[in-house]
Amino acid sequence: MQQNLKDNQEHLSNLQKAWAHNELVQIYSDQWTQIKTLEDGQQDDGMHIRTLENALAVEGTQIKQLENLIDNSMKWCEVQIQVTCEEVEVKLKDIEAKCEHVGMKHEVEERLW
User: How far apart are CA 111 and CA 103, in angstroms?
Assistant: First the structure.
């Protein structure tokens, strides 16, 4: 009977050790799962960050294109203003010449009268 009790206590001790070991395995498994989840989350965050960076790069390219369009439009406007000013100057000189001619013609007519 003593031997049986001793065997049962040893068996109980082994069961307690096994139970503790199983609990540690479960804890480590849970921790590994948490670590894996965090790593996956970091990868997802990293992909999200890369997606945002790519979107910003696209936006930056579009902004640069718009800036170039604005610069080109401003240059075109400057050229058009210059051309218009030159055309106006030519027309003004033509009008001045016509006025001068009319003025001379008027003087000649007055003298003839």
Answer: 12
Give the pLDDT confidence score for residue 37 in this predicted structure: 86
Size (the chain), residues: 113
* CA dihedral (97, 100, 106, 107) positive or negative: negative
Q: Which residues of 48-84 are buried (b: 16+ CB within 10 A; e: fewer)?
A: eeeeeeeeeeeeeeeeeeeeeeeeeeeeeeeeeeeee
pLDDT tens-digit map of 27-71: 888 898 888 888 888 888 878 888 889 999 999 999 999 999 999
Measured distance CA(7)–CA(15) in Å, rounded:
12
Query: pTM for this structure?
Result: 0.49
